[in-house]
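Fold this complex.
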Amino acid sequence: MQISAETGHIEETPYQVERQVGFLLRQANQRHVAIFSNIIGDKLTTTQWSALSKLQQNQPCSQNQLGRETAMDVATIKGVVDRLVKRGLVATVPDMSDARRVVLSLTQQGEEVVTENRQAARAATEETLSPLTSGERMIFLELLQKLC
Amino acid sequence: MQISAETGHIEETPYQVERQVGFLLRQANQRHVAIFSNIIGDKLTTTQWSALSKLQQNQPCSQNQLGRETAMDVATIKGVVDRLVKRGLVATVPDMSDARRVVLSLTQQGEEVVTENRQAARAATEETLSPLTSGERMIFLELLQKLC
DNA sequence: CCATTCTTGTTTGTATGCGAATGACTATCA
DNA sequence: TGATAGTCATTCGCATACAAACAAGAATGG
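Structure:
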Protein backbone atom coordinates (compact mmCIF):
# COMPACT_ATOMS: atom_id res chain seq x y z
CA MET A 1 0.00 0.00 0.00
CA GLN A 2 1.32 3.39 -0.95
CA ILE A 3 0.13 6.94 -0.81
CA SER A 4 -0.08 8.61 -4.17
CA ALA A 5 1.73 11.93 -4.46
CA GLU A 6 -0.95 13.16 -6.83
CA THR A 7 -4.20 12.14 -5.29
CA GLY A 8 -3.13 11.67 -1.69
CA HIS A 9 -5.15 8.50 -1.70
CA ILE A 10 -4.06 5.08 -0.61
CA GLU A 11 -3.29 3.01 -3.67
CA GLU A 12 -3.86 -0.68 -3.62
CA THR A 13 -1.11 -2.64 -5.26
CA PRO A 14 -2.99 -5.24 -7.28
CA TYR A 15 -2.87 -8.51 -5.40
CA GLN A 16 -1.39 -11.35 -7.42
CA VAL A 17 -0.90 -14.65 -5.63
CA GLU A 18 1.86 -15.70 -7.95
CA ARG A 19 3.98 -12.76 -6.79
CA GLN A 20 3.58 -13.37 -3.06
CA VAL A 21 6.45 -14.78 -1.00
CA GLY A 22 4.40 -17.70 0.22
CA PHE A 23 3.53 -18.83 -3.27
CA LEU A 24 7.11 -18.49 -4.45
CA LEU A 25 8.58 -20.22 -1.42
CA ARG A 26 6.30 -23.19 -1.95
CA GLN A 27 7.24 -23.39 -5.61
CA ALA A 28 10.96 -23.02 -5.05
CA ASN A 29 10.79 -25.74 -2.45
CA GLN A 30 8.91 -27.99 -4.85
CA ARG A 31 11.54 -27.46 -7.48
CA HIS A 32 14.32 -28.33 -5.05
CA VAL A 33 12.57 -31.51 -3.92
CA ALA A 34 12.18 -32.56 -7.55
CA ILE A 35 15.86 -31.89 -8.27
CA PHE A 36 16.90 -33.75 -5.15
CA SER A 37 14.89 -36.83 -5.93
CA ASN A 38 16.11 -36.84 -9.52
CA ILE A 39 19.69 -36.96 -8.31
CA ILE A 40 19.38 -39.14 -5.23
CA GLY A 41 16.66 -41.36 -6.65
CA ASP A 42 13.84 -42.83 -4.67
CA LYS A 43 16.15 -44.09 -1.95
CA LEU A 44 15.85 -40.98 0.19
CA THR A 45 13.57 -37.97 0.52
CA THR A 46 14.85 -34.49 1.39
CA THR A 47 13.37 -34.82 4.85
CA GLN A 48 14.95 -38.20 5.46
CA TRP A 49 18.27 -36.86 4.27
CA SER A 50 18.03 -33.94 6.71
CA ALA A 51 17.32 -36.32 9.58
CA LEU A 52 20.12 -38.73 8.71
CA SER A 53 22.63 -36.01 8.04
CA LYS A 54 21.81 -34.12 11.22
CA LEU A 55 21.84 -37.31 13.26
CA GLN A 56 25.36 -38.03 12.11
CA GLN A 57 26.45 -34.66 13.48
CA ASN A 58 24.64 -35.07 16.82
CA GLN A 59 24.90 -38.72 17.56
CA PRO A 60 23.35 -40.00 19.79
CA CYS A 61 20.21 -37.95 20.09
CA SER A 62 16.65 -38.28 21.36
CA GLN A 63 13.83 -38.35 18.81
CA ASN A 64 12.26 -35.02 19.79
CA GLN A 65 15.67 -33.40 19.95
CA LEU A 66 16.38 -34.49 16.40
CA GLY A 67 13.01 -33.12 15.41
CA ARG A 68 13.85 -29.76 16.92
CA GLU A 69 17.17 -29.59 15.14
CA THR A 70 15.66 -30.45 11.79
CA ALA A 71 12.61 -28.22 12.25
CA MET A 72 10.15 -31.10 12.34
CA ASP A 73 7.06 -31.49 14.44
CA VAL A 74 7.04 -34.34 16.98
CA ALA A 75 4.45 -36.14 14.87
CA THR A 76 6.47 -35.59 11.71
CA ILE A 77 9.83 -36.69 13.07
CA LYS A 78 8.23 -39.83 14.44
CA GLY A 79 7.04 -40.86 11.00
CA VAL A 80 10.40 -40.07 9.44
CA VAL A 81 12.35 -41.96 12.10
CA ASP A 82 9.98 -44.93 11.93
CA ARG A 83 10.60 -45.30 8.21
CA LEU A 84 14.35 -44.96 8.63
CA VAL A 85 14.33 -47.59 11.39
CA LYS A 86 12.26 -49.93 9.26
CA ARG A 87 14.86 -49.60 6.52
CA GLY A 88 17.70 -50.34 8.89
CA LEU A 89 19.38 -46.93 8.68
CA VAL A 90 18.65 -45.81 12.23
CA ALA A 91 18.77 -47.77 15.48
CA THR A 92 16.82 -46.99 18.66
CA VAL A 93 17.79 -47.84 22.23
CA PRO A 94 15.85 -46.93 25.36
CA ASP A 95 17.65 -44.29 27.46
CA MET A 96 19.03 -45.58 30.78
CA SER A 97 18.70 -42.35 32.68
CA ASP A 98 15.32 -41.28 31.28
CA ALA A 99 12.66 -43.88 30.71
CA ARG A 100 10.67 -41.62 28.40
CA ARG A 101 13.45 -41.10 25.95
CA VAL A 102 14.40 -43.13 22.89
CA VAL A 103 18.04 -42.70 21.91
CA LEU A 104 18.70 -42.65 18.18
CA SER A 105 21.88 -43.46 16.33
CA LEU A 106 22.93 -44.36 12.81
CA THR A 107 23.48 -48.00 12.00
CA GLN A 108 26.52 -49.11 10.03
CA GLN A 109 24.37 -49.00 6.93
CA GLY A 110 23.04 -45.58 7.92
CA GLU A 111 26.56 -44.22 8.17
CA GLU A 112 27.35 -45.61 4.76
CA VAL A 113 24.25 -44.09 3.22
CA VAL A 114 25.14 -40.66 4.58
CA THR A 115 28.69 -40.92 3.30
CA GLU A 116 27.67 -42.27 -0.08
CA ASN A 117 25.09 -39.55 -0.72
CA ARG A 118 26.82 -36.45 0.52
CA GLN A 119 28.22 -35.55 -2.88
CA ALA A 120 24.81 -36.09 -4.44
CA ALA A 121 23.26 -33.81 -1.84
CA ARG A 122 25.84 -31.16 -2.68
CA ALA A 123 24.98 -31.58 -6.33
CA ALA A 124 21.29 -31.07 -5.58
CA THR A 125 22.07 -27.84 -3.73
CA GLU A 126 24.24 -26.76 -6.64
CA GLU A 127 21.59 -27.46 -9.26
CA THR A 128 18.89 -25.74 -7.24
CA LEU A 129 21.01 -22.60 -7.06
CA SER A 130 22.20 -22.85 -10.66
CA PRO A 131 19.96 -20.02 -11.95
CA LEU A 132 21.90 -17.64 -9.69
CA THR A 133 25.41 -16.27 -10.05
CA SER A 134 27.91 -16.85 -7.30
CA GLY A 135 27.31 -13.41 -5.86
CA GLU A 136 23.56 -13.76 -6.01
CA ARG A 137 23.76 -17.06 -4.15
CA MET A 138 25.54 -15.49 -1.21
CA ILE A 139 22.98 -12.72 -1.00
CA PHE A 140 20.04 -15.05 -1.46
CA LEU A 141 21.16 -17.49 1.23
CA GLU A 142 21.80 -14.66 3.64
CA LEU A 143 18.35 -13.17 3.14
CA LEU A 144 16.68 -16.57 3.17
CA GLN A 145 18.28 -17.32 6.52
CA LYS A 146 16.71 -14.18 7.94
CA LEU A 147 13.30 -15.55 7.03
CA CYS A 148 13.66 -18.75 9.08
CA MET B 1 34.60 -26.61 -3.41
CA GLN B 2 37.45 -24.19 -3.53
CA ILE B 3 41.13 -24.29 -4.24
CA SER B 4 43.25 -23.02 -1.38
CA ALA B 5 45.73 -20.32 -2.27
CA GLU B 6 48.17 -21.73 0.26
CA THR B 7 48.09 -25.45 -0.28
CA GLY B 8 46.76 -25.60 -3.81
CA HIS B 9 44.52 -28.45 -2.69
CA ILE B 10 40.82 -28.79 -3.21
CA GLU B 11 39.10 -27.88 0.01
CA GLU B 12 35.84 -29.47 0.96
CA THR B 13 33.45 -27.01 2.47
CA PRO B 14 32.08 -28.87 5.49
CA TYR B 15 28.60 -30.09 4.69
CA GLN B 16 25.99 -28.73 7.05
CA VAL B 17 22.39 -29.53 6.28
CA GLU B 18 21.14 -26.48 8.10
CA ARG B 19 23.00 -24.24 5.66
CA GLN B 20 21.70 -25.87 2.47
CA VAL B 21 19.09 -24.12 0.32
CA GLY B 22 16.70 -27.02 0.55
CA PHE B 23 16.70 -27.02 4.31
CA LEU B 24 16.24 -23.26 4.47
CA LEU B 25 13.50 -23.17 1.85
CA ARG B 26 11.56 -25.78 3.78
CA GLN B 27 11.93 -23.83 7.00
CA ALA B 28 11.07 -20.46 5.50
CA ASN B 29 7.99 -21.98 3.94
CA GLN B 30 7.00 -23.50 7.28
CA ARG B 31 7.34 -20.15 8.95
CA HIS B 32 5.17 -18.48 6.34
CA VAL B 33 2.47 -21.13 6.64
CA ALA B 34 2.46 -20.63 10.41
CA ILE B 35 2.17 -16.85 10.04
CA PHE B 36 -0.59 -17.20 7.47
CA SER B 37 -2.68 -19.53 9.59
CA ASN B 38 -2.19 -17.32 12.63
CA ILE B 39 -3.63 -14.39 10.74
CA ILE B 40 -6.29 -16.07 8.62
CA GLY B 41 -7.24 -18.64 11.22
CA ASP B 42 -8.24 -22.20 10.48
CA LYS B 43 -10.71 -21.11 7.82
CA LEU B 44 -8.25 -21.35 4.97
CA THR B 45 -4.87 -22.91 4.25
CA THR B 46 -2.20 -21.24 2.12
CA THR B 47 -2.89 -23.72 -0.66
CA GLN B 48 -6.63 -23.17 -0.55
CA TRP B 49 -6.05 -19.44 -0.62
CA SER B 50 -3.86 -19.78 -3.70
CA ALA B 51 -6.53 -21.80 -5.47
CA LEU B 52 -9.37 -19.44 -4.56
CA SER B 53 -7.41 -16.33 -5.35
CA LYS B 54 -6.17 -17.65 -8.68
CA LEU B 55 -9.61 -18.91 -9.59
CA GLN B 56 -11.01 -15.44 -9.11
CA GLN B 57 -8.52 -14.11 -11.64
CA ASN B 58 -9.16 -16.87 -14.19
CA GLN B 59 -12.82 -17.62 -13.85
CA PRO B 60 -14.06 -19.99 -15.18
CA CYS B 61 -11.31 -22.56 -15.34
CA SER B 62 -10.91 -26.32 -15.60
CA GLN B 63 -9.56 -28.23 -12.62
CA ASN B 64 -6.26 -29.30 -14.15
CA GLN B 65 -5.76 -25.83 -15.57
CA LEU B 66 -6.15 -24.33 -12.12
CA GLY B 67 -3.68 -26.89 -10.83
CA ARG B 68 -1.14 -25.87 -13.44
CA GLU B 69 -1.52 -22.20 -12.61
CA THR B 70 -1.12 -22.78 -8.89
CA ALA B 71 1.72 -25.28 -9.32
CA MET B 72 -0.27 -28.18 -7.97
CA ASP B 73 -0.25 -31.79 -9.07
CA VAL B 74 -3.48 -33.19 -10.56
CA ALA B 75 -3.94 -35.33 -7.47
CA THR B 76 -3.25 -32.40 -5.17
CA ILE B 77 -5.54 -29.91 -6.88
CA LYS B 78 -8.33 -32.46 -6.84
CA GLY B 79 -8.13 -32.76 -3.06
CA VAL B 80 -8.00 -29.00 -2.64
CA VAL B 81 -10.94 -28.38 -4.97
CA ASP B 82 -12.98 -31.17 -3.38
CA ARG B 83 -12.63 -29.57 0.02
CA LEU B 84 -13.50 -26.12 -1.33
CA VAL B 85 -16.56 -27.52 -3.07
CA LYS B 86 -17.65 -29.32 0.07
CA ARG B 87 -17.45 -26.01 1.91
CA GLY B 88 -19.50 -24.23 -0.70
CA LEU B 89 -16.77 -21.87 -1.91
CA VAL B 90 -16.37 -23.36 -5.37
CA ALA B 91 -18.99 -24.64 -7.81
CA THR B 92 -18.47 -27.18 -10.58
CA VAL B 93 -20.37 -27.47 -13.85
CA PRO B 94 -19.74 -30.00 -16.62
CA ASP B 95 -18.26 -28.40 -19.75
CA MET B 96 -20.62 -28.36 -22.73
CA SER B 97 -17.93 -28.58 -25.37
CA ASP B 98 -15.69 -31.11 -23.62
CA ALA B 99 -17.27 -33.95 -21.70
CA ARG B 100 -14.07 -34.69 -19.77
CA ARG B 101 -13.77 -31.26 -18.31
CA VAL B 102 -15.17 -29.87 -15.08
CA VAL B 103 -15.55 -26.13 -15.13
CA LEU B 104 -14.82 -24.41 -11.83
CA SER B 105 -16.06 -21.06 -10.61
CA LEU B 106 -16.37 -19.24 -7.31
CA THR B 107 -19.74 -19.26 -5.57
CA GLN B 108 -21.18 -16.09 -4.10
CA GLN B 109 -19.74 -17.17 -0.78
CA GLY B 110 -16.42 -17.97 -2.42
CA GLU B 111 -16.21 -14.46 -3.88
CA GLU B 112 -16.94 -13.01 -0.47
CA VAL B 113 -14.26 -15.12 1.20
CA VAL B 114 -11.67 -13.96 -1.31
CA THR B 115 -12.63 -10.33 -0.84
CA GLU B 116 -12.79 -10.57 2.93
CA ASN B 117 -9.39 -12.19 3.28
CA ARG B 118 -7.31 -10.27 0.81
CA GLN B 119 -6.08 -7.79 3.37
CA ALA B 120 -5.22 -10.61 5.75
CA ALA B 121 -3.26 -12.33 3.00
CA ARG B 122 -1.37 -9.11 2.39
CA ALA B 123 -0.64 -8.91 6.10
CA ALA B 124 0.74 -12.45 6.07
CA THR B 125 3.07 -11.58 3.20
CA GLU B 126 4.12 -8.47 5.06
CA GLU B 127 4.86 -10.29 8.31
CA THR B 128 6.76 -13.04 6.53
CA LEU B 129 9.02 -10.44 4.92
CA SER B 130 9.28 -8.32 8.06
CA PRO B 131 12.87 -9.39 8.89
CA LEU B 132 13.98 -7.75 5.62
CA THR B 133 14.32 -4.09 4.74
CA SER B 134 12.40 -2.73 1.80
CA GLY B 135 15.45 -2.98 -0.44
CA GLU B 136 16.24 -6.50 0.67
CA ARG B 137 12.69 -7.59 -0.09
CA MET B 138 12.95 -6.48 -3.69
CA ILE B 139 16.22 -8.33 -4.14
CA PHE B 140 15.02 -11.42 -2.33
CA LEU B 141 11.81 -11.72 -4.33
CA GLU B 142 13.68 -11.25 -7.57
CA LEU B 143 16.18 -13.98 -6.77
CA LEU B 144 13.50 -16.27 -5.37
CA GLN B 145 11.57 -15.96 -8.61
CA LYS B 146 14.60 -17.18 -10.51
CA LEU B 147 14.53 -20.37 -8.47
CA CYS B 148 11.00 -21.33 -9.48
C1' DC C 1 -12.93 -42.96 -40.55
C1' DC C 2 -9.87 -45.31 -37.84
C1' DA C 3 -5.81 -45.92 -34.97
C1' DT C 4 -2.59 -43.59 -32.29
C1' DT C 5 -1.80 -40.24 -29.12
C1' DC C 6 -2.86 -36.65 -25.89
C1' DT C 7 -5.61 -34.67 -22.27
C1' DT C 8 -8.78 -34.70 -18.33
C1' DG C 9 -10.11 -36.30 -14.24
C1' DT C 10 -9.95 -40.17 -10.68
C1' DT C 11 -7.94 -43.38 -7.49
C1' DT C 12 -4.32 -45.62 -4.76
C1' DG C 13 -0.17 -45.62 -2.20
C1' DT C 14 3.51 -43.33 0.19
C1' DA C 15 5.54 -39.36 2.66
C1' DT C 16 5.44 -34.99 4.83
C1' DG C 17 3.47 -31.49 8.04
C1' DC C 18 0.77 -29.64 11.90
C1' DG C 19 -2.79 -29.28 15.86
C1' DA C 20 -4.49 -31.53 19.63
C1' DA C 21 -5.13 -35.08 22.92
C1' DT C 22 -3.12 -38.76 25.74
C1' DG C 23 -0.16 -41.48 28.90
C1' DA C 24 4.11 -42.03 31.02
C1' DC C 25 7.80 -40.11 33.16
C1' DT C 26 10.87 -36.21 35.24
C1' DA C 27 11.73 -32.00 37.61
C1' DT C 28 10.60 -28.51 40.66
C1' DC C 29 9.12 -26.23 44.45
C1' DA C 30 6.54 -25.32 48.34
C1' DT D 1 6.97 -35.60 50.12
C1' DG D 2 3.29 -34.42 47.43
C1' DA D 3 1.12 -31.52 44.08
C1' DT D 4 2.15 -29.21 39.88
C1' DA D 5 4.32 -28.27 35.85
C1' DG D 6 7.06 -29.62 32.03
C1' DT D 7 8.96 -33.17 28.69
C1' DC D 8 8.95 -37.36 25.68
C1' DA D 9 6.81 -40.21 22.67
C1' DT D 10 2.50 -41.82 20.57
C1' DT D 11 -1.76 -41.42 18.20
C1' DC D 12 -5.61 -39.33 15.53
C1' DG D 13 -7.40 -36.35 12.12
C1' DC D 14 -6.79 -33.34 8.46
C1' DA D 15 -4.32 -31.25 4.49
C1' DT D 16 -0.80 -31.09 1.17
C1' DA D 17 2.35 -33.36 -2.39
C1' DC D 18 3.74 -36.56 -5.98
C1' DA D 19 4.17 -41.04 -8.75
C1' DA D 20 1.73 -44.30 -11.13
C1' DA D 21 -2.03 -46.52 -13.08
C1' DC D 22 -6.53 -46.07 -15.05
C1' DA D 23 -10.89 -44.87 -17.91
C1' DA D 24 -13.08 -41.84 -20.89
C1' DG D 25 -13.11 -38.43 -24.15
C1' DA D 26 -10.72 -35.36 -27.77
C1' DA D 27 -7.50 -34.45 -31.51
C1' DT D 28 -4.51 -35.68 -34.98
C1' DG D 29 -2.55 -37.91 -38.93
C1' DG D 30 -2.85 -41.15 -42.39
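Residues 45-48, 72-76, 79-80, 83, 98-101 of chain B lie near DNA strand D (CB under 10 Å from a C1').
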